[in-house]
Amino acid sequence: MQETRINNKWSVKIIIFFVALAGLGLWGLYDALLKYPAMGQAAAEWAEREYLDAAQDSGELMLASVDDPKAELSELRAQSDAIRMAASGATSGREGREAITRLKRLEWLEQLAIINSLQAEQTTFDDPHDRLDELTTLHANMNQPKPLAAYDIPMQWVFVVVGFGGALYLAYLFISVKSRKFKYEPETLTLTLPDGTKITPAQIEEVDKRKWDKFIVTLRLKDGSAHRLDLLRYTPLEEWVLEMEKQTDGYEPPAETESESASAKEAVPVESPTDKPAERV
Question: What is the DSSP track for 117-140?
Answer without folding.
Answer: --SHHHH--S-HHHHHHHHHHHTT
